[in-house]
Fold:
Amino acid sequence: MRIPVLYEDNHLLAVVKPPGVPSQEDETGDPDMLTLLKADLKERHGKPGNVFLGLVHRLDRPVGGAMIFAKTSKAASRLSEAVRSRSFGKTYMCVVQGTPASPAATLKHYLWKDQKRNQVTVFQTPEANAKEAILAYKVVAVHERFSLIAVKLHTGRSHQIRAQLAHIGCPLVGDLKYGAAKQPGIANIALWSTSVSVPHPISKEEVAFHSLPEAAAPWSWWEQDQLEEAAKYYI
Structure:
């Protein structure tokens, strides 16, 4: 499997993650991003021995789009610090069932993840072991019973967008785990990483990498200019 490369230098590798590929090895044993990219780097650059590649952030298996990896341990450390300090920018677009009551809003909840079930519970107020989750969203377009939404993450919790939007009555199309109705022809959940931005680990200059989803349902339900508006809204 060839992973599209958005940018590469001696410190960073930005790529487009295909939907359905795990970010790292899991119990399924299916090809994962780390393994595939290490093999690709080894082949393209003719590297002997092991290749270093650091996983800085994750995308859920069904999610596609822009993703950054570190090519050195120093870059990995600095990029991980950017994630912790919230200077790592992440924007998404998604297609949801229904339309949120507010056309634009900031959602703040507290999320607790059941590791055995791999599912998140959403609370309105602080609860033991629940982590604060904040995102902003904007409804970009509405088509029949569905809405195209731009999302900016302020925190990076597991299943955050999926759980928070489902909590307000708008589960992502294809996300059966969080209450979406089954849609014919939808293989993955309708969530795409449209951009990642971060201070470069060496130059400290802000770098940003962008991606638009492939032309398949449910993304094909929208005009190209609507997808571009969703991708650029929080940039």
